[in-house]
Hints:
By secondary structure, this protein is an alpha+beta fold. It has eleven helices and nine strands. The strands form three sheets. A four-stranded mixed β-sheet has the order 2-1-3-4.
Amino acid sequence: MTYDLYIGDYAYSSWSLRGWLLFDKFGIGRNTTLVDFSDKSVAEQLTKIAPARTVPAVKTPEGAVLSDSLAIAEELATRYPDAGLWPSDPGARATARNLAAEMHSGFFTLRNDCPMNLRLSYADCSPSEDLLKDVQRLEMIWEHARANYGADGPWLCGTYSVADVFYAPVAARIAGYNLPVGEVAQTYVGTHLADPAFRRWRAMGMAHGATLPWYAKDYPTRPWPGPKPLAAKALHDGTPENANCPYSGKPSTHLIELNGRIFGFCNAFCRDKTAADPEAWPAFMALQ
């Protein structure tokens, strides 16, 4: 079965990150279409899958349209019961569902004051009292989940679930705005930042799309707090070690240099997303 997934800008669209993770983390195939945030309105770009008017949106193989992230998650969990979207333990599953629902319907100050921007991290955003209340609530529910159901892994209920999908952009906000959190929350944020799927999404955000000034804030910046990428750079000339792109298998036409070695890709996006964070891409690292 083939799903059509519509997403927005990698660097800025927090809900699109959730939609993409629902497919990527649980191994569900999809065709992906990007909606341009710098072009005409999102709704106008989604007219062929009306009534969807926001991203992410999904068209199922039989033609149903899903335009709500929680609905997408629940429908995929129903169709793929063995994929592990929700925990199998009843208590952990109930907790994960509650966590996802609270994120879906709350934390408005965090969303408004700290729009996701994966291209920058700020040293100090001078958080308001209401923003700090949102952060304190996050810490409370995260610590509850980790203490009661987190024994089997680093995620909220142990193994990765829809709950973690929904809080991935929250982790990006805490990292991006350097919000004050305790040890449990900071460790959980770090788990997201180091997750290969999250790193791939951020690498694509660094490689694709315009810098949108309306997402910028007038705060001092700092280096991104996640794992430091390997130092790769694009090249205009050279002979690659690999004749074919590690992703598409097409002939190598675009180059990067890493540790004195030259590797090739089939287009500029494949090249640039790899150069942004080489270790995020298993197919490329297999060439090492």
